[in-house]
Amino acid sequence: MPLVIGYPRRALSNIVDFNQSIKDPVSEKLLPDPVEPPYYQPPYTLVLEINDVLVHPDWKFRSGWRFKKRPALELFLQQLSPYYEVVAFTNESAMTGGPVLMQMDPQGQYIHYRLFREATRYRNGKHIKDLSCLNRDLSRVILVDWDPDAATLQPRNALIVKRWEGEESDRELIDLAAFLRMLAMGNVEDIRLVLDYYREFDDPLALFRERHEQLMEEQAKRKEEKEKLASRPKPRFSFSGMTRT
């Protein structure tokens, strides 16, 4: 091939390959294979966006970007780590998101894997998290994110929550932890079937919280009634005369 023609063609091919590398994940297998016994592999995989789910980025002129931790973040991670293989999967670059995750879990006790923007698919101006690249059974994978576009490829695996804007009074992580523990302790075979139901509501966690509170009230009432019955004086019988006293 003449050099004049061959060089532009090779250059164009390199440009196409480079563009594709930006659009597609760095690997079609983002996580290693699940561990085998005697090592412990949690039964479910929990994929978490960090921005506006776990932390909130805040810009100030003097200090630059700072990341504010969401209330109950440590408790949230502690409660879920026995049940879930926790994967942080964020649209942030590794340069930005890496230090945030290091501060969040410096010893790597709770967050098993960390995936960044380079692991997403880029389509129509959106970074999409392709859960099929996680090397995990999708019936046991749940993505928690505030952005529905992030779950375009596997919407049934997504629990879309409200975006946290940094409010100190927020308690969503407490409710989210309770919801996720309920799923795991129920040994749900296909987590998508449960998410299908909750997806019908604008605020799934508010619905769960309301029903959980109702259940707790019913249990408290039953306990109170049982205690009242137990505290009632029991009738006494005299067997000598077979008379009730």
TrEMBL record:
Bias (Basic and acidic residues) ranges: 217-230
Domain of life: Eukaryota
Keywords: Membrane, Mitochondrion, Mitochondrion inner membrane, Protein transport, Transit peptide, Translocation, Transmembrane, Transmembrane helix, Transport
Pfam families: NIF
Family matches, as PANTHER family: DULLARD PROTEIN PHOSPHATASE
Assembly description: Component of the TIM23 complex.
Protein name: Mitochondrial import inner membrane translocase subunit TIM50
